Amino acid sequence: PRAPYDPNNIFAKILRGEIPCKKVYEDDFSLAFHDINPQAPVHLLVIPKGAYVSWDDFSEKAPAEEIAGFIRAVGQVAREAGLVDPGYRMLANVGGHGHQEVPHLHVHLFGGRQFYAMVP
Ligand code: 5GP
């Protein structure tokens, strides 16, 4: 069973403008901003505006337009941040074993340094 969406999670508050963020991109379906505790010289988060807990419910329930828009946005944010030529890493944590801390889907974009083999 999947957890219900918590409308008081921190990213929902950012989407409602109740707490600030360092925004780098916004369109109809997506918002991107700097991670508050960066793990790389560039560490951005891209989130859909819809109420999705994780990749799991997003991939199953989101309208195709929202999915396509979000995927486009992730790519555009990486391009605008200058990450493409040197290269970058993206990941999304899902649920407890994934160590997902904020229950609103977010894709992490990491750049600005060399990454190494995945350490699962
Ligand atoms: P998770 O572990 O859920 O994949 O990642 C959550 C991320 O959200 C962490 O990297 C954490 O630093 C970031 N984060 C948590 N609270 C805030 C916040 O209030 N503002 C911003 N910009 N990032 C946050």
Automatic annotation (TrEMBL):
A motif (Histidine triad motif) lies at residues 104-108. Coiled coil: none annotated. InterPro entries: Histidine_triad_CS (IPR019808), Histidine_triad_HIT (IPR001310), HIT-like (IPR011146), HIT-like_sf (IPR036265). Residues 10-120 form the HIT domain. It holds the Pfam family HIT. It comes from the Bacteria. Gene3D superfamilies: HIT-like. This is Histidine triad nucleotide-binding protein. It comes from Novosphingobium aquae.
